[in-house]
């Protein structure tokens, strides 16, 4: 029996864990007592993280399409076909007809190599990943406000906060180890304010639970800021010394009185006043938020409003005070850091910067296109309209995870060439021309970067099944076939190149990554890494306020579609369920899709717990079981998106946030009716 | 048979043994101690690994047999069970094994468990410096091994007092005969003294009946509101043993046995959808009920050996030991969890 120290594959907490290997198989998982954040704990998904690894459904050999069938082939043939198809599209329609969707499940090294392949070998900046659907607004808004789109402190620093404002995050279920620090702070006497339309577990434990109408966040956040300034609780000195744009922002927020905000959001004015004074009085105030904030068509504005609040109260740059965006995937932070985004190179170096261009061209050879590329959803719409012809999708299942399923399917079917690499067959591999079998996290080496910017090792514990390969291997192979250089002996070698080209990762190398990992920015080989950012200065100098105004959500309930539908997750499943639904215990916990609704609404419609219902929006309809839950507001519906038999995204709205291009996933008008038994 | 093993000779003894049998020992890694196959790594005999040694008798996931279809008939194959020597296990874990023997030994005995159990030799290390989380003394599970094992070691300063209790234990000592010295009466006196001190250093208010009283007082719903239903407490408990069976693969595949946890709601969900232990509080209550009331009735021993691992691994603000919410994290932030 051997125990291999690695990093959890599920959420952005990045817990450290051992995989127990006996006779070449993984027989168990256990937490690392020494991990600086998880300290001997895991959530239920973590305890079972390796259960899917040896599952018989794993993809074991490369497949190519022949008519309606996908048939087995060799790696050589699959990659030769891929290279030839991409080349011919590139020749005929130009590099802009190609695109790459990388994977937030992949390692940093793989994301880096993919963005290098897209830029240096395919000649396109059409490279993006699933962050578009979770934290693109964070990257955009915090990047503007604070000069960096990442969490400002360490997760463990939350235990020293005096007040924690949790917004749009079902933390106990989605980021349990973050919740554990919030609970610790609470048992130390910190005040907890939870803002969520649903009465989550954390809301039950909160000192104050505010339940806004869906999509009205900007209104109540502006209102808190307004009250804090009026009660003279703002940190004038911090504002003066370290920020710009406060006056304009103040002017904009002054219209948001408690009464006005109550009218828009439905939160009682008295509660808003209470919340403002709790947060305003705290000497260490933390703002924790997740997808409930970002997955809106005005997601960037909401994040900016939160940043305004943190800046006005001087809550940045100290332990226990800061802005804590919680990333969904274990490596969505790293995929962004690696420049798997259409407008930046690794480390958020702008494509438009001549120095950055020159540096990368020198390292890679050839040329890098300057024009920003298309975002994930834009690529799909370009495929639909026919201007994008060839797409590589790595470790992602857009048919299920992207909004408006039928449109995504149509777009992918319209492509001339689609290559998908994954560990299991999915709704997306079913549409591919070439399918590559990938090694999973337990079968390869690399690094992940957690939501607290902690770069950590992932280690190979067992061999991949059949002919499956680590993605970094075929990416190098394909890059070379496409005519660019990609000679690396190991993922550690790739990290050395990343470090040499990416200032925030400058000091990172495999030798230095012990059980604590290293938190970026880590610019030099002797730099200890950075727990708290922005201590004395922001990366772009001074922090920026920006006034944001409330706008009605694009779709509100009406007579035809009287319910407000929001999508989200269950604590026992992850993303599109390809891994968790193959983990027997997790599948046992939540085996079937469901919609959560208010018991009173259900009673009026004659619906019981377990009744089959049909949920419809203007875009589609699905059939699921009803679950009655007191925590759900009257008029609201909550639908998890893990289930291919009832794809929530068949229903979702798709208005894009003008800045970050995230889709509106949280608010759709819907109706519901009982299915004939 | 008694003998004395100077400390610097221990690796040589393990080397001797390692040539005959797979030796599992607590090795030191930079992320804490853990039980793995010993191949010369440095040992950590001070801290207790978080995953108990019982995983070698009841793995988190084990293939009971493989089924293959051939010519219209099924052929079943059991996996080979490796013979192993478990070195440096703690008295609490040994007591847990004694308890598992009773539970899995009830008619009809659990063959998968006993196949592994019979192929295993046990070398126990008495606890002369218990961890802060330990309370085995109150439950009579430690700090001195009282249950049958093959060989018992006690760190008496410059070496180990070795006491073989079975033929296998004598064979182990014989394997290292050249490394051993005779045991002296002082070694026995030192052992008694150190273990007496260790016993005194542990909390005195954690006997089975005292925990039952704490259960009467506990506000289960308040505790349950903090519980994150991670299942961790039952995955690290050396006594917890519930499992689930599933067949993976059609037409050929494996019948797997996987550890389960009563802290998960699905464990007690009934076919119709109702759940007698719907809330985390109810499940916590049941966990204690099982350990301190039901298992004692069935086996005559408490279902807890006082190792404190459930407390170490609990991510919530629940003090798993004294059944309160707030008291945790006040004094024990990082040191107690190491
Ligand atoms: S909290 Fe996140 S990183 Fe930690 S074990 Fe759970 S899923 Fe894995
Ligand atoms: S209940 Fe806790 S202290 Fe008792 S044996 Fe199990 S893990 Fe150890
Ligand atoms: S370890 Fe703690 S949080 Fe996890 S199930 Fe047990 S009591 Fe609940």
Kindly summarize this structure in a few lines:
The complex is a heterodimer of chains A (677) and B (338). Chain A has 677 residues and is an alpha/beta fold.
Walk me through what this model shows.
The complex is a heterodimer of chains A (677) and B (338). By secondary structure, chain A is of the alpha/beta class. Chain A folds into four domains: 2-47, ADC-like domains (N-terminal domain of TfIIb); 63-132 and 330-452 and 461-490, Rossmann fold; 136-325, Dimethylsulfoxide Reductase, domain 2 (3-Layer(aba) Sandwich); 563-674, Barwin-like endoglucanases (Beta Barrel), CATH 2.40.40. In chain A, the strands form seven sheets. In chain A, strands 5-4-18-17-16-6-7 form a seven-stranded mixed sheet, sandwiched between helices. With 338 residues, chain B is an alpha/beta fold. Chain B has one domain. In chain B, a hairpin with a 3-residue loop joins strand 8 and strand 9 (159-164). In chain B, helix 6 packs antiparallel against helix 9 (280-299) and helix 7 (220-226) packs across helix 9. Chain B is globular, with a radius of gyration of 21 Å. The model of chain B is unreliable at 327-338 (pLDDT under 50). Chains A and B meet through strand 1, strand 2, strand 3, helix 1 and helix 6 of A and strand 3, helix 8, strand 10 and strand 11 of B. The complex binds iron/sulfur cluster (3 copies). One iron/sulfur cluster binds at residues 8, 10-11, 13-15, 38, 42-43, 45-46, 176-177 of chain A. One iron/sulfur cluster is lined by residues 8, 10-11, 13-15, 38, 42-43, 45-46, 176-177 of chain A.
């Amino acid at each position: 029996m051997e125990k291999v120290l690695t990093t959890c594959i599920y959420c952005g907490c990045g817990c450290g864990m051992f995989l127990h290997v006996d006779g070449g198989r993984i027989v168990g998982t256990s937490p690392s007592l020494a991990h600086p954040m998880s300290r001997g704990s895991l959530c239920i998904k973590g305890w079972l993280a390796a259960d899917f690894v040896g599952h018989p459904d794993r993809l074991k050999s490369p497949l190519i399409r022949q008519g309606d069938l996908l048939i087995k082939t060799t790696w050589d043939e699959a990659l030769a076909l891929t290279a030839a198809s991409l080349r011919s599209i590139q020749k005929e329609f130009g590099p802009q007809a190609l695109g790459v969707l990388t994977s937030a499940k992949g390692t940093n090294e793989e994301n880096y190599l993919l963005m290098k392949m897209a830029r240096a070998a395919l000649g396109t900046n059409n490279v993006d990943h699933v962050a578009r659907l979770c934290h693109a607004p964070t990257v955009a808004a915090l990047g503007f406000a604070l000069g960096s789109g990442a969490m400002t402190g360490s997760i463990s620093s939350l235990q020293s906060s005096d007040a924690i404002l949790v917004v749009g995050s079902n933390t106990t279920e989605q980021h349990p180890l973050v919740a554990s620090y919030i609970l610790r702070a609470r048992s130390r006497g910190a005040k907890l304010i939870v803002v969520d339309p649903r009465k989550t577990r954390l809301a039950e434990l909160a000192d104050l639970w505010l339940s806004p109408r869906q999509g009205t966040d900007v209104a109540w956040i502006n209102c808190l800021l307004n009250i804090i300034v009026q009660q003279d609780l703002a940190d004038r000195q911090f504002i003066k010394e370290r920020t710009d744009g406060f006056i304009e922002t103040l002017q904009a927020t002054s219209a948001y009185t408690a009464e006005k905000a109550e009218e828009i959001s439905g939160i009682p004015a008295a509660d808003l006043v209470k919340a403002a004074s709790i947060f305003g009085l705290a000497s260490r105030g933390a703002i924790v938020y997740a997808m409930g904030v970002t997955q809106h068509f005005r997601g960037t504005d909401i994040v900016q409003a939160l940043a305004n609040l943190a800046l006005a109260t001087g809550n940045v740059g100290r332990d226990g005070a800061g802005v804590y965006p919680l990333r969904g995937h274990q490596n969505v932070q790293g995929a962004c850091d690696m420049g798997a985004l259409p407008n930046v190179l690794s480390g958020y170096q702008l494509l438009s910067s001549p120095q950055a261009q020159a540096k990368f061209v020198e390292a890679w050879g050839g040329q890098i296109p300057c024009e920003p590329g298309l975002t994930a959803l834009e690529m799909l719409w370009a495929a639909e309209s026919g201007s994008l012809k060839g797409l590589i999708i790595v470790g992602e299942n857009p048919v299920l995870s992207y909004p408006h399923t039928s449109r995504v399917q149509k777009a992918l079917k319209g492509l001339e060439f689609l290559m998908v690499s994954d560990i299991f067959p999915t709704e997306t591999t079913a549409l591919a021309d070439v399918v590559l079998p990938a090694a999973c996290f337990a079968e390869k080496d690399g690094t992940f970067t957690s939501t607290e910017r902690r770069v950590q090792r992932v280690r190979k514990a067992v061999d991949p099944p059949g002919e499956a390969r680590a993605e970094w291997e075929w990416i190098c192979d394909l890059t070379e076939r496409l005519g660019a250089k990609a000679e690396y002996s190991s993922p550690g070698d790739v990290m050395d190149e990343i470090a040499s080209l990416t200032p925030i990762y400058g000091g990172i190398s495999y030798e230095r990554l012990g059980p604590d990992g290293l938190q970026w920015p880590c610019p030099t080989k002797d730099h200890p890494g950075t727990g708290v950012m922005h201590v004395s200065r922001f990366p772009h100098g001074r922090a920026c306020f920006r006034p944001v105004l409330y706008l009605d959500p694009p779709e509100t309930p009406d007579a035809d579609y009287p319910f407000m539908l929001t999508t989200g997750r269950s604590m026992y499943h992850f993303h599109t369920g390809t891994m968790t639904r193959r983990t027997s215990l997790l599948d046992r916990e939540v085996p079937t899709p469901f919609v959560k609704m208010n018991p009173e609404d259900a009673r009026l419609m004659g619906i019981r717990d377990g009744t089959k219902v049909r949920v419809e929006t203007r875009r589609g309809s699905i059939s699921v079981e009803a679950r009655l839950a007191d925590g759900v507001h009257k008029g609201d519906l909550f639908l998890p998106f893990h289930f291919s038999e009832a794809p929530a995204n068949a229903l979702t709205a798709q208005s894009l946030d003008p800045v970050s291009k995230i889709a509106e996933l949280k608010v759709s008008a819907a109706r519901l009716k009982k299915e004939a038994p | 048979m008694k003998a004395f093993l100077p400390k610097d000779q221990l690796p040589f003894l393990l080397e001797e043994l390692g040539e005959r049998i797979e030796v599992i020992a607590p090795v030191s890694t930079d992320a804490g101690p853990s039980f793995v196959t010993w191949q010369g790594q440095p040992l950590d005999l001070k801290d207790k690994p978080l995953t108990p040694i019982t995983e070698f008798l009841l793995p988190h996931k084990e293939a009971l047999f493989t089924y293959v279809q051939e010519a219209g008939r099924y052929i079943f194959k059991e996996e080979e069970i490796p013979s192993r020597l478990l070195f440096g296990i703690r008295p609490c874990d040994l007591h847990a094994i004694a308890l598992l023997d009773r539970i899995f030994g009830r008619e009809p005995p659990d063959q998968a468990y006993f196949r592994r159990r019979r192929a295993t030799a046990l070398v126990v290390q008495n606890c002369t410096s218990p961890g802060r989380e330990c309370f085995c003394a109150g439950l009579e599970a430690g700090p001195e091994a009282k249950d049958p094992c093959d060989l018992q070691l006690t760190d008496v300063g410059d070496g180990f007092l070795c006491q073989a209790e079975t033929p296998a234990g004598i064979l182990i000592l014989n394997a290292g005969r050249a490394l051993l010295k005779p045991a002296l009466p002082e070694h026995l006196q030192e052992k008694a003294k150190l273990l007496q001190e260790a016993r005194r250093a542990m909390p005195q208010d954690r006997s089975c009946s005292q925990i039952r009283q704490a259960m009467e007082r506990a506000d289960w719903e308040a505790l349950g509101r903090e519980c994150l239903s991670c299942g961790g407490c039952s995955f690290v408990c050396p006594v917890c043993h519930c499992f689930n069976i599933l067949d993976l693969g059609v037409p050929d595949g494996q019948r797997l046995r996987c550890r389960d946890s009563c802290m998960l709601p699905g464990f007690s969900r009934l076919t119709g959808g109702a759940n007698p232990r719907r809330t985390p509080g109810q499940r916590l209550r049941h966990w204690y009920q099982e350990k301190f009331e039901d298992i004692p009735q069935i086996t005559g021993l408490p279902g807890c050996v006082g190792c404190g691992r459930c407390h170490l691994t609990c991510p919530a603000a629940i003090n798993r030991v004294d059944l309160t919410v707030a008291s945790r994290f006040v004094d024990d932030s990082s040191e107690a969890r190491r």
